[in-house]
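Lecture notes, part 5. Sequence design as translation. It can be helpful to think of inverse folding as translation between two languages: the language of shapes and the language of residues. The source text, in structure tokens, appears below.
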């Protein structure tokens, strides 16, 4: 049995508007299950049964801010990606694909039951966000074609844990933007989703042999970092709604060797088509709810448009546990929050998880 599945079984982990507007007429998508992103009424009923709950039927707000519309677009963009990921993972387990096989039938059944609930819950999140866009007469977000860099069950759970960490940070930004735009009713719904995503993350962590709760205050993020990260899992040119989401896409940043729980230099690579590394750049870290940490970046070598560099990861000085979001920035700040880091970012996000 996989260690991750064994942990779930041995530790006894549990799985977990006025009437909604007319579903968005996007048609079916061959890569997504259950008629997503436009399930039929009977398909929606089955989704809700597997999700152990229903779409909210509270009255939608009469208006929304421009920032609120951007929030809903990013949420739908992310949730459709997650639907594709969990659907593929379930299919690999169900078909006994090599790397996704379990020696225990009980362990396999438990994992499938949990993942099927998670998939259905993510489907409802996507439907809810797109329904919100339709309610405000905005074109809903369509799915892309996706590709996932995983080769077995264990690596899939690690990836799920990583992007869920980023989602939990991004939804903090969503709630704040809703609050600034006075979209109070929508902020409450997202707060509910944050709790649900946190339940998922606790399970993924236990499956990796970690304690369920990562930090006292989870690392925050910015919508633009999530928008960029999701695109790393899409087939270029396959996203019909990409240009309709008014967020930035940064150059890619890859952490070559993730650091451990100690201060050390780390090496990373990033895209630099305009040769901005000919001048001083910095590696800026966002960790927990603390002020961003800035370290000078040293270029090691350049290969075409890709720069290989290194910088200090000051773990011990700042107790940099949990998720850290790294970004190559054009200035050393000082930065007051994740938003200002994103404003000056050249490449990112690089995702580091320690503990």
């Amino acid at each position: 049995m996989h260690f991750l599945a064994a942990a779930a079984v041995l530790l006894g982990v549990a799985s977990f508007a006025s009437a909604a507007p007319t579903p968005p007429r996007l048609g079916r998508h061959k890569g997504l299950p259950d008629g997503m992103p436009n399930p039929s009424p009977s398909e929606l009923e089955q989704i809700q049964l597997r999700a152990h709950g229903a779409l909210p039927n509270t009255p939608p707000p009469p208006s929304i801010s421009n920032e609120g519309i951007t929030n809903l677009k990013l949420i739908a963009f992310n949730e459709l990606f997650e639907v594709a990921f969990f659907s593929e993972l379930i299919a690999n387990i169900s078909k006994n694909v090599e790397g996704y096989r379990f020696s225990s039938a009980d362990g396999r059944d438990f994992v499938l039951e949990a993942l099927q609930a998670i998939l259905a819950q993510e489907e409802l999140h996507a439907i809810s966000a797109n329904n919100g866009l339709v309610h405000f007469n905005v074109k809903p977000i369509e799915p892309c074609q996706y590709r996932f860099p995983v080769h077995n069950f264990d690596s899939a759970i690690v990836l799920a844990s990583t992007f869920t960490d980023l989602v939990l940070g991004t939804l903090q930004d969503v709630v704040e933007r809703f609050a600034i735009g006075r979209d109070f009713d929508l902020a409450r719904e997202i707060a509910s989703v944050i709790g649900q995503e946190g339940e998922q993350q606790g399970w993924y962590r236990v499956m990796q042999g970690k304690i369920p709760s990562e930090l006292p205050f989870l690392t925050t993020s910015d919508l633009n970092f999530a928008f960029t990260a999701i695109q790393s899992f899409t087939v270029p040119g396959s996203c019909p709604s990409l240009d309709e989401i008014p967020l930035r896409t940064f150059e890619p940043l890859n952490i070559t060797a993730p650091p451990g729980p100690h201060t050390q230099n780390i090496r990373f690579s990033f895209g630099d088509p305009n040769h901005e590394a000919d001048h001083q750049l910095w590696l800026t870290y966002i960790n927990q709810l603390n002020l961003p940490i800035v370290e000078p970046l040293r270029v090691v070598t350049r290969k075409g448009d890709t720069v290989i560099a290194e910088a200090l990861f000051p773990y011990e000085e700042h107790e940099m546990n949990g998720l850290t979001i790294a970004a190559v920035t054009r200035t050393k700040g000082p930065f007051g929050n994740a938003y200002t880091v994103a404003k000056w970012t050249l490449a990112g996000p690089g995702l580091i998880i320690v503990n």
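The translated text above is only one of many valid answers, since several sequences can fold into similar shapes. The chain has two domains: 3-244, 253-354.
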